[in-house]
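Person: I have long wanted to understand how a fold can be written as tokens. Underneath my words sits a plain record pairing an amino acid chain with its backbone structure tokens. Those tokens are not coordinates but codes from a learned vocabulary of shapes. I should like you to check that the lines agree and flag anything odd. The protein I mean follows directly.
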Amino acid sequence: MKPIAYQRAARKALTRMPRTEAQRIMAKIEAYAADPEAQVNNVKALQGRPGLRLRVGDWRVIMLDGDVLDILDVGPRGSIY
């Protein structure tokens, strides 16, 4: 499992949303860090900038996948891009 680093914007977004949603999103992030192939249907490359997006219901997680899984931001699907 890769180490996960949450940036300030992502931590702030997770603390402001309902706890159950935040736990569900963090569980999906941990599942991706453990086995990226298991989440292949929910992950796409971003267009116009480096990074990936992970789909969790109506929420989107913007991340960079390197030696450390860097979580840049979390938000609703309409306003995160």
